[in-house]
Amino acid sequence: xxxxxxxxxxxxxxxxxxxxxxxxxxxxxxxxxxxxxxxxxxxxxxxxxxxxxxxxxxxxxxxxxxxxxxxxxxxxxxxxxxxxxxxxxxxxxxxxxxxxxxxxxxxxxxxxxxxxxxxxxxxxxxxxxxxxxxxxxxxxxxxxxxxxxxxxxxxxxxxxxxxxxxxxxxxxxxxxxxxxxxxxxxxxxxxxxxxxxxxxxxxxxxxxxxxxxxxxxxxxxxxxxxxxxxxxxxxxxxxxxxxxxxxxxxxxxxxxxxxxxxxxxxxxxxxxxxxxxxxxxxxx
Length: 284
Fold this sequence. Notes:
It is a multi-pass membrane protein. The protein is mainly alpha-helical.
């Protein structure tokens, strides 16, 4: 019975859309997440997951497409955090101060949306934002997700070498003419765009896992930066594929949960490997 259900799911257009969009979203998340972990900015990614929820609820409460709120909110707050931080890096004190407030604001917009006429047509919108709705992506949204994720991936690869240099030793990088703050700002914009896009796949609550778990596993498996970058992207894509396959085999299993379960298992498995002497990544 399970085999028949899986075969039926795999043949459906919604599954093809989820697989295509999810692959590119995971690719972008793995690439961005590698630098997010390497630069010790995981807390920023956690904050943006709350912003994604708040932005989406604000857009819905105003009667707009929730993707407007996702992208505008995540990018705007990412720039704000970088602007008040040091050399384009968000300050943990600033993030912590805004953390709970953003979630509370999201709850306010959710209440506003669900008690308005606009919210009566789709009472599950808040749940979709929190836990993802990758099976709900149509052809147009799938194409948009692929294009956005492809642009983010190319941008990360384009700035990878100078960003790595600025990450390893920002003072020396600045002395050699690397625009450290501009790179930091650009990187956080890419994090914001990725957060907005990935929320549609795994939801704002689980967003951090897709950004951090594959990258964390890659950093435990290799200390060579560009191998780690490729490994983080590959693991993210493989984990998304595994999650979608598990959700197809087990119809009651939400795809976002299955994706995060695969990511968590892979990260946990890295602890079974004998630890190696870690070296500081080098830019060259």
